[in-house]
Amino acid sequence: MSIDDRRGAVGPPAETQRPLSAVRLFGGGVSGHEARMGLLLVTPAVIFFAVFMLYPFLSAFWYSFTSWDLVGPPRFVGLRNYVRLFQDEDFWNAAKVTAYYTFGLLVPMLPLSLLLAMLLDRKLRGRAFYQGVLFAPAVLAAVVVSMIWRVVYMPQGGLYLLFTAPFGLTNIPWLNDVHWAMPALIIVGIWKNVGYYMVIFLAGLQGISPTFYEAARVDGAGTWQQFRRITVPLLRPIMLFVAVVSMTKAFQGFTAAYTLTGGGPADATKVLPLLVYENAFSFNKMGYASAIAVIMFLVLLMLTLIQFRTLRPEV
Amino acid sequence: MRQRQFWSGTLIHLCLIVASLLIALPLVWMVLTALKTHQQVFTEPMWRIPAEVQLGANIAQVFKLIPFWRYFSNSLIVATVVTVGGLYFSTLAGFGLAKYRFPGRNLIFAVIVATMMIPFIVIMIPEYIIVRRLGWIDTYAGLTIPFLISSFGIFMLRQAFLTVSDDIIASARIDGAHDLRVLFQIVVPLNVPILVSLAILRFLMEWDTLMWPLVVTNSTRMRTLSLGLAIMQNDRYGADFPTLMAAALLAIAPVVLLYAFLQRYFIKSVASFGLKE
Predict the structure, then answer these.
(1) ipTM, 2 decimals?
(2) Residues near B86 by beta carbon (within 8 Å), at least 6 away in sequence
(3) B34 CB near a chain A CB, below 8 Å?
């Protein structure tokens, strides 16, 4: 029996307060069919979300209150993981390293993305070409990007010498020095993502009607004033979007640290996701690792809320 | 006035050329390194193409060191299954949420939107435990099924389907088309661009992902390309730069080819994703 055959089988009561569109869509009074069909359509997604999103999400909190090495059942230990966490130097180090990476990446990159977008937001010969080149690293797998940068960062004979040798800087141990390792990862992050956010900014800029700028010019506003008074306020929703997305991604950044430095040297690049991974899958401390992950979630939630507060479009 | 415009135009081009060069240089460097022998990386002048190009030998070395095609096809299988399967179920759910009324609809939609806020790192450990209980460690099921449906996809498709006029759907129904036919013959064809955008984004994301394959596989034959290459560079081959670059070249060749032809769509998919909020 097809879904359609069942339609007429339901004898629905008179439907007076149903909105017109629904009545027109499904013929007067087939609410039984409409409801069942709607439920049928969303059922796979609902089951999926229950099993692979909500249940894991709630379990993460539960595991964070347990001690569990995957042998036997988890043992409830109350807040012990959290207490230990706040006394754990490795955790505080990872928190600092993550903050360094996140802000070290976003603070130079996002203005750069916006600047490039503004340069491209006009009639320009070669525009598609520039855009194509600048966006290209975004389509490469992060692991491959790490491989490429390994060769850029070769202390001897690496591409970086092109920029540092004129200043007498050679033999820089990019990936093996406590002070160089994080800047090295940040440069990789900027290279990979600057074009990605540029494209999003550019889409936003092109949504701003040129008449605003024309009117401002007639009133004698300079470039800076146009930027302050037109571009920034009208771009706010996009800025909020970019800020939230880029921070969420950078905060969870794992691949570059895992592949290029392995968290070293001396934990100088051991970001929080790496710490979670290590505790869970190298030391089998599922409870402790879950506690770190839960803290990460709460911090990210807080940061996102702050971003919504500060960047919310002014009405 | 005109002269000022000329100078500002030149300046803009200059900035963009410098930026493009900075982005392109590491890629050129990758190709150059893949042409050299390990020795030549350190002895030859930086920009000289070696007299005897070593690319063939370096690629042969890649195939000797790692089961490259196995990794590659694993990635292809995983990314394709997640993209196509995910899109299919997201389409069904998006349609249901946009065009049907049923009890609990708003709650379901709200929960789906809320799960967009859950970072992967939080659910990773429980997800691993579920997959272990199901016996899916080191299987394609373990690699794909937990990521089949994305809340983002459902959200975007629901928004897109809302804009399909009810009249079109109603007239199709009067002509006797049943629900799934309405969806796949009328609603879906009207929304091809958004579906293509979502597919591109999803595919790139899955092609890229490292952490989950790292957690959920343990045999060499189940590694995805990202994982295989990550392990290769952290292995003793990490310092064999020409081989590494030959592998990188092989890995990005298909993506770069696709990008060269479909650049517009790649960029559009990212741009639209920003605009729809």
Answers:
(1) 0.90
(2) B147, B148, B149, B150, B153, B202
(3) no
